Amino acid sequence: MLSGLSFSTIALLMVAGVLLDLWWGEVRRWHPLVGFGNWSIVLERCLNQGGMRFARGMLAWMLAVLPLTALAALLVWALAVPLAQAVAHTLMLYFCLGMRSLRDHNLPIADALAHNDLANARRLTSYIVSRDTTSASEIELTKASAESLLENGNDAVFGTLFWFIVAGGPGAVLFRMANTLDAMWGYRTPRFLQFGCSAARIDDALNYIPARLTALSYVLLAPGLQGKRRAWQCWRAQAPAWDSPNAGPVMSSGAGALGVELGGAAIYHGEVEYRPRLGQGPAAVGADINRAWRLVARTTVLWLAVACTAAALMEYAHA
């Protein structure tokens, strides 16, 4: 492992990081990712002007990500005591995870829809997606929330856990910062088309393997053999139609596992965008948000169980 940790230690720290996230949730003040986002805004305002936008965007990415990743690695190295190193790795993972945040932002939408409170559901949904929710219907709000849960389950949980396995706390930090910059700069608008191109491509590369492991997990956890077959077929047939090489597999397999239809038209930046269909089955309704959350939660348990089982087997093999 690049982190220098044994796999058994990594597995235990993964469990600790997830439990901390579920217990404490996001730090309300002085969250490191919020500070990183503010620093990234300053860099973008300073560098996203004039010519050579692609090169400026690459420079901004390096100035935003590389110093903080190096600082995280240096901190772990400087803490020579193993227990202190373990605490540092765990806290880095905790700050990078967003599982409880997914739950806390999406389940209230399902609750508002259950009480036919469209106005509140639209307001809550607007906090988590960039599409226009001003006049969105229940089906459109459910699609937005369920798609966010499925895709961000990969970004905020599974991709972070994958890079934690590869490189410990610094690996999780690197991935989450790269993913944050893609979310901030990776738009195909005149302002970001060239400047954010490198951020989008780097995130695609870092997310390539985690996204496919996430999609496979959604397939495995689909209910029954028919559900698994449907999730697999949706992945293979629908993912290529999506522009994002990683969101396509994750959301198509997830929608297939839920047995609902997602995707379709949505309003972004004042214009209707016709996106490919996701999944198979009836149109999603409010209760499907809860089902999407449970799929993400079960996938997290699966990943932790696989990591702990693999660690136990490796320990047994070396005993």
From TrEMBL:
One of its GO terms (cellular component) is plasma membrane. GO terms for molecular function: ABC-type vitamin B12 transporter activity; threonine-phosphate decarboxylase activity. It is found in: Cell membrane. Keywords: Cell membrane, Cobalamin biosynthesis, Membrane, Transmembrane, Transmembrane helix. The chain crosses the membrane at residues 6-24, 59-84, 156-175, 295-314. It holds the Pfam family CobD_Cbib. It is a multi-pass membrane protein. Pathway: Cofactor biosynthesis; adenosylcobalamin biosynthesis. One of its GO terms (biological process) is cobalamin biosynthetic process. PANTHER family: COBALAMIN BIOSYNTHESIS PROTEIN CBIB. Belongs to the CobD/CbiB family. Converts cobyric acid to cobinamide by the addition of aminopropanol on the F carboxylic group. HAMAP family: CobD_CbiB. This is Cobalamin biosynthesis protein CobD. It comes from Duganella alba. The gene is cobD.
